Amino acid sequence: QRLSGVVVVTMTTAPSAAAKEQERRTLPTLADRVVANRRRKPGLFVLRSYVVVILGACLLIAVVYLQERSYWKKDDIVVVLQQQIKQEKEDPRKREVRLLQRLSHISSRRQLLKRGTPQQQAFSWLCRDDPRQVSVDHVKIVQRYVLALLWFSTDGPNWKQGPFLSDQHECNWIITSDKEAKWGVLDCNHDDDVTDLFLAENNLSGRLPSELWHLSKLELLDLQNNHIEGIIPNELGYMTTLQVLALSANSFAGRIPEGLGRLQRLGTFCIATHFCFANRIRVCTHSPTPLMDPQNNSSCT
Predict the structure, then answer these.
(1) Where are the beta strands (DSSP E) in the chain?
(2) Across residues 197-209, what is the average pLDDT?
(3) End-to-end Cα distance, the chain
């Protein structure tokens, strides 16, 4: 160091080994500190341990309880449904009342109760004679009713093919001949909604029920080469997923219903022999005879 012009040199010497050892002994280690803390506060350490154990036990009990509660709810729902189905089987009158109430939103109550109507026949079959005895609360009971109604409305007993009204699910109402031709419900989606219905050349006669539009996921309806008469139901225009509608070679009367103009996805429509249009169609309802103009508007004036 420079101090008032005088240079002072300071000399330091390294600590000896004995001094280091002495210093190490005087400084407490971490373990020593923990032990010392335990000795000073033994109750605090034990209390923390108890709190951790109790919280873990409570968490485990809560998990087990919630799981058991969830399983109980599932089992309880199953038991209630089983009891409900059993009561319906034991009390046909109760099932009939509940089914009538459910189907009154599909067909009129008068048609469901008037003896001899296709609606009454389908209702009676579904209520008493259906070997499957689907629960009234089942989401697909309307689909089963509409297909049964189609069978009764078009002289089902005289159909050539089609295992309708069987004990199988509707998606299995299909038959395959020796030549691998198929009739009936050709396809369903992953929710078991009927999407393809093929009954061409199957000796159908009578009238198409307006309730057919409740097959809301139908994409293909082929009823060609039968003996169906009457008008085409305007309600078919509510089948917004319909892509193919084949009705040619039947005995339909009247005009093409205006409701078919709402079918935005309809790509193929066959209404008479050699009268089948592909791609986008236009329905002309103000013409004296049924007309369809796929290309221009001149023939609709």
Answers:
(1) 2-3, 6-7, 174-176, 182-188, 194-198, 205-207, 220-222, 227-230, 244-246, 251-252, 268-272, 275-278, 283-284, 291-292
(2) 95
(3) 117
Are 156 and 167 in contact by the 8 Å Cβ rule? The answer is no
Nearest Cα residue to 151 out of 200, 103, 208: 208
pLDDT at 293 over 50: no
Count of Cβ atoms closer than 10 Å to residue 277 Cβ: 17
| The residue to which tokens 């004679």 are assigned | 129
Residue 47's pLDDT is what? 76
In whole angstroms, give the CA distance from residue 218 to residue 267: 14
Q: Dihedral (C-alpha) 225, 226, 227, 232: value to the nearest 10 degrees?
A: -80
Q: By C-alpha distance, which of 239, 188, 240 is closest to 214?
A: 239
The pLDDT score that the predictor gives to residue 93 is: 87
CA–CA distance, 95 with 104 (Å, rounded to integer): 14
Tokens for 58, please give them.
């409570």
Question: Confidence class of residue 105 from pLDDT cuts 50, 70 and 90?
Answer: very high
CA distances from 217 to 35, 107, 155, 241, 243 (A): 76, 19, 24, 6, 10
Strands 220-222 and 227-230: unpaired
Q: How confident is the model at residue 160 (pLDDT cuts 50, 70, 90)?
A: confident
